[in-house]
Amino acid sequence: MEPGIKLLVELQGCDTRISNIQNKKQEGPTKIQRLEEDFLIFKERLDQELNQIEEFKVKRRQAEQGIDDLETKIDKTNIKLSNIKSNKEYQAALKEIEDLKRNKTVLEDEVIEIMEETQAVKDKSSITKEEKEKFEKKFKKDRNKILKELKALDKEFKGLEEERSLFCRDIDGDLLNRYDSIREHKDGVAVSSVIKGVCQACNLGIPPQKFNELIRGDGMMTCPNCMRIIYWGEDEYFNKDKDVEKA
Predict the structure, then answer these.
(1) Which structural domain range is residue 79 located in?
(2) How far is CA 221 from CA 101, 133, 191, 234, 244, in A?
(3) Model pLDDT for residues 202-217, shown as the tens digit of each residue
(4) Taking the CA atoms of the chain, what radius of gyration do you get in angstroms?
(5) Is the entire prediction scored with pTM above 0.85?
(6) Same structural domain for residues 115 and 203?
(7) Which uninterrupted H or E stretch holds 229?
(8) I want to staple 42 with a disulfide (CB 3.0 to 4.6 A). Which of 109, 132, 212, 241 is the partner?
């Protein structure tokens, strides 16, 4: 077997792990952002409900002030009744009192309605607050877990980068450039095994004659379909680790 192919297979495995780590590292911040957005929904809902309660308090104070003002006017009009001489003025004063009392009743009903609405929102906000606190606890736990995973990935990534440098040092420069060029244009996969005559990267068969040449390991070969560097995946060199695991 071509000596360089063994190093390329190891390098490809290293690069694949690096790529997987990079993908996971990109997923971490996205997951945290989604958690923050979900938490923000609870927070905004609770803030909205608390603001609504404050608005109801203002409306209630305004209505109660209106009731006080009407009661003052009713008292003044009642006092005025005792000093009225003409029947026409007396009837007008009575009507004024009647109108004031009617307006007072409307405001009293409004206060009752506001109190009921306030209580309903308070009950709702209590549930929202409880849900928010539960989610906040879970949010912090999940976020810390993700941050811990990202830290571990950073450590693993650095180790793989060092490992990659060692592989690159031992591989011929032209071969390494060829490998990097193929990997750049083939979704990060430059080397593929061929098992039972089928390239495992593109899942297409290679001609029997080429497959026999691959088995003999006469030289560096590429898949005629996807142009990746190929090796015989059933070679005992690449299966020795699996045999050890089975043992």
Answers:
(1) 15-170
(2) 101, 61, 10, 16, 28
(3) 999 999 999 999 998 8
(4) 41
(5) no
(6) no
(7) strand 229-232
(8) 132
